[in-house]
Structure formats: structure tokens, C-alpha cells
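Progress against Task 2.4 (sequence-to-structure conversion) is shown through the following example record, which the project officer requested during the mid-term review.
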Amino acid sequence: MVDINRYLNFRYYEDLPKGVDYKLKFGKLSIVFILCLVVSSCSLQGIGASGEKGKSSPCMTYWQTDLPARVMLKEDITLRCCPVHDTKSYVEASYFLVTVITTVRTDNFENPDEIEGLWALVLLPTLDTAMDNVGWVPYRDLEVYTEENKHLLRYPVHLRDGTVDLDTGEEVKWDEVLVEYEDDYAIVMWEGGNIHKVSVDSIVYPDVHEINEIE
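C-alpha cells generated for the chain above:
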């Protein structure tokens, strides 16, 4: 039997800030509401612009970057409830395409080209209930999706027409799936606990130009 948790690589923690709902519904008002929750959470922890507790300076400042609207997480990246390294974390994922909601700077304000101190608030796609899928990651933990790195992508990928399960022979059809590669085959899965063993050649990656042109 396949252990789906090993492939999802999601880690949930019990020490989430109480009373905060991390569900995301699309729309400008919802995004503003999420930002207000995050800023309030940071303020309650007494975190200043430098990331040190006890500071009275602003928690963060909006910072324009050249990131596309959708980028890829690097390996084993943890979403955090505030743009601070030692703050609470609640979910981890590798090589997912995420949507960048906003970017902020919390340090090195005098060095605009410095990556340290830059954070992005991202929306992480989920296979089932959309919970705990919005959080902060350091800017350095994101990379632009390219022809050179697309083979690392785990979600979302697509299946070729006519893909079949290697064990049962049944046709496997779904729009977007999560993939994990083994020695000579791939495990794909999607909502509802569907898991199938398919040929590696069945995997189709999203078009690089289309992903990078999304606004």
C-alpha cells in the first residue's frame, strides 16, 4: 500500500495561533483580510522591522520585485505565519507552483538588491480542503519556473491521453495531479485519495511561457 503522506510531505503543527483561519477565498477583499491577520499576528508577537522582538518599528514594508505571479518552491520549504525565521510554521512542501500574493522587506532596507530580508506571501495549492495554504516564505526559497528546472515540479503536472495504471491497466484521467518519481515509474495522485502507478513518459509539465505570463 502507498503511504500518501510520504509523497505529500506536508507537516502540520499543533502550535498554530488560535482563532486564525488560514483559508483563502479569491478576491481583493479576502487578500486584504489575510494581510491584516498576518500583520496583527506579527504585532502581537512584538516583532519589529529587523525581525527582533520588542521593537516598535513597522513589522514589514511592501517591496516591489520582478517575481512572476506564479513561481516554484524549492525543496522542503516551510510556510510561516509571519515573515520571521523563528516564527510558527504549519505546512511544508517541495517543488509546488505557488501564487505570489505580495512581497515585503523586513531587513536590509538600505540595500535594495539584498535578498536577505525579502519575504513573499504565497498561496499553496492543496489536493483537498483549502486550509493552512497561505503563508510566508523567504524570497530565496522561490525560483522562477523554467525549461531547465521544470523536471523538478511535483504539482501541478498533467497526464498524457491514454495513460494507464501500470498495475491494473485502467485508464488514468485527471486535469492536474501531484507526481513523485520512483526508479522506473511515477506515482500520481489527486483529490479524494486517488493514487496510481504510471509510466514516467505519461507526465506532461505546464508550459513555461504560459506560467510566466500569468498576471
